[in-house]
Amino acid sequence: MKTAIVVHGGAWAIPDALAEASVAGVKAVVRAGDAVLKNGGSALDAVEKAVSSLEDDPVFDAGHGAVLNTDGEVELDSIIMDGKTLATGAVSSVRNIANPVRLARAVMEKTEHVMLTDRGANMFAERIGFPAAHDLVTELERKEWEHYKKYVVGVKELFNSQWGHDTVGAVALDSFGNVACATSTGGIRNKMVGRVGDSPIIGSGGYADNRSGAVSCTGHGESILKVTLARLILFHMEQGKSAAVAADTSLQYMGERVQGGGGAIVVSPTGDWAARFTTPRMAWASVKGDVLCYGLNPDEEFKEMLK
Ligand code: GLY
Q: What's the predicted TM-score (pTM) here?
């Protein structure tokens, strides 16, 4: 069976200064995830590899490079889900963790729960020997935060007016026919302390089910939560729509119903995939077979053959 993987580096108005690095980042990471699949690895291993690599890249809003809350601190959210069993792990509002997606997987595999939050998630991380990371804040983010904290506006206005990145994610189909998804984020700059967006919430920031497909979302979290965007996309696929039409239909619904922008990557159990967004830009890349596709601007798709 042909494997497939799609990754995103977040929907938003990515500035020209970060455009090249964003595209280079998603292209490198999709190749790393594809290598896991081509070596016989599982979809779950591939999405964990891809998302943890994006968390390590300071260009993206996740792990290193995450945005700051109103107190100038990093609080991170992540989810990972196995489409074979519906096993899910998630963490929200964790601090000083470089790879929240790995912690989410540990919640899935080492506890009886689906999600741990805040202090409990950090206590669990310490108990299982996760290293603490105290260098997650970039100089650029500290400067941006200083600039924007002057404005007393909500995160939706900030989301619509600022340049930046939002969230990283991956979906994959492995050679055994299993799908998986993973999503990770620092959220939205100037969010309230303790605010949790869509990313770690099952059915909103991500969902994976071998019977319909896998989705990872990005965009305005409060809007995505209200329409449970990941499940909405899979609902449309269950009704017979292609991955691209299901994503477009759902993103359009979110725009009309709650005036929210965002994006999604999707893969079906047959390898039908899509990367769609309603924000000005979203860095994404995919590999299916020997073809690597990538893009940044709407209706843009570049193709390369893998050697
Ligand atoms: N989409 C990420 C967030 O709103 O937190």
A: 0.95
